[in-house]
Amino acid sequence: MLLPRRQTDGILPPHCRPTRIRSEILVAGRRVVAVTGILGLTLTLGACASLSGHGPGPFHDINRANFALNEAVDQAVLRPTAHAYVAVVPHPIRIGIHNVFSNLSDPMVVVNEFLEGRPRQGLEESGRFLANSTFGVLGLFNVASAMGLERHHADFGLTLAHWGVPRGPYLYLPLFGPSSLRGLTGRIVDSYLGNPVQYISSVPIRNSLTILNLIEIRAQLIGQVRLIYSAPDPYLMMKDAYQQHQRYRLYHGHPPIVYPGLPGGPAPGTDAPPTPAPQPAGKPRLPSKR
After folding, report:
1. Residue 182 exposure: Cα atoms within 13 Å on the Cβ side
2. Range of the domain at 157
3. Number of domains comprising the chain
4. Is residue 94 part of a domain?
5. Do 132 and 89 form a contact (C-beta atoms < 8 A)?
6. Is residue 270 part of a domain?
7. In b/e form, how buried is each residue of 99-135, taking b as 16+ CB within 10 angstroms?
8. Is 28 helix (H, G, I), strand (E, B) or coil?
């Protein structure tokens, strides 16, 4: 016998009710549509604006204004909070917190390794995630490194670079720091689809974990940020450090030594692998025997 609608909704558990299922499908659909739209915008703008990364760039004035804003927020809030965090929280606990957040980001690293065409590294990262999530107590202890499974780094911005998407103009974002058009797209996709914290239903817990992760990241960068702020032009030093770091990651820790403008070097504003230098025409000259 079919029960009335009101009685049926009372019998079904909350996670199986049709209204909740429809809302979850709608949320997932909106995420996919948003990511697809952002990716399409990046491909369009990147193809039209493969601008030089060595010049000021089209957003230079806005970037400097955002840098000044971020520096003021950092001096007033983030830096004192990070120093207090380091002073109050014992080092082993900070290492454990860092390990947990690092472990939460590993599944998205696995996905991007496969998207980049690196299945061996993807399988290694999968093994690392499983080891730390089980024997490492949800990532609290980094047992995978002791087992010889070193952590790889991959994000969707680097995946787009491997797919040939141009880097686009340099951006300095309020509160988020240095990026590029391609890097911003990768960051949005990774945060939409690969951040497990955002799927926590409790808003206070989700916000607390997000703030804790932000403080932990700032505490990790105390020395680097101090060095950047001590430079004659901190903005330019931040820009150069970010672009060099992205190039280092693009080549997985082994960037080739190239000189822009010379044969074999990259074109200005690009981070594509260098092309081989042209060889002179004619038959190769063999070494003479003596």
Report:
1. 29
2. 29-250
3. 1
4. yes
5. no
6. no
7. bbbebbbbbbbbbbbbbbebeebbebbbebbebbbee
8. helix
